[in-house]
């Protein structure tokens, strides 16, 4: 259930204060959205570190926290990401970076805290290394909505 649902009488400002407290401890927070059509998770706070926010779709809360916190930590330590880059995560999935087309729609807490943001989706390959744009992804048993256009451009052309 959502934080606001678990705290009747609370306000959006109260919720944002909780997110701010998490950001103060680590530098970012991971927000999970329990949408039955498309569960997803994203970071809030990376923009304050002059880094892109991160997002994953159709993952469990535990996997989302592990991967997003892991990649966020790598970004803080100097890892460079750009649309089209594939990264093999230690103990995690192979991911490809896709720039989120409308981050203001999908990352409301990050936008509420920082205004306009840039966000990258970490698109994960299934256990056989297939991507969601492949017809046989997860043997068609799972969906992974991709919230931007896939690109294979070079990193120099993608940096801003």
List the helices and strands and how they pair.
Elements: H1 3-6, H2 12-26, E1 29-33, E2 40-44, E3 53-57, H3 61-76, E4 86-88, E5 94-99, H4 103-106, H5 108-114, E6 119-124, H6 155-158
Pfam families: DUF4262
InterPro entries: DUF4262 (IPR025358)
Protein name: DUF4262 domain-containing protein
Q: Could you explain the architecture of this structure?
A:
The chain has 160 residues and is of the alpha+beta class. The protein has one domain (3-158). 31% of the residues lie in helices and 19% in strands. It contains six helices and six strands, in the order ααβββαββααβα. The protein has a six-stranded mixed beta sheet, with helices on both faces. Strand 1 and strand 2 (40-44) form a beta hairpin. The mean pLDDT is 88.
Produce a short descriptive summary.
The protein is of the alpha+beta class.
Query: How many separate structural domains?
Result: 1
Globally, the shape reads globular
Number-wise, the strands total: 6
Estimated share of beta-strand residues:
15-25%
Task: Give the proportion of residues in helices.
Answer: 25-40%
Taken in chain order, the helices and strands follow as HHEEEHEEHHEH
Q: Count the DSSP helices.
A: 6
Distance between the terminal alpha carbons, to the nearest Å? 37 Å
Low-confidence stretches: none
Could you say which structural class the secondary elements and strand pairing correspond to? alpha+beta
Major sheet description: 6 strands, mixed
How do the strands of the widest beta sheet line up side by side? 1-2-3-6-5-4
Q: Provide mean pLDDT, rounded.
A: 88
Rg computed from alpha carbons, rounded to a whole number of angstroms: 16 Å
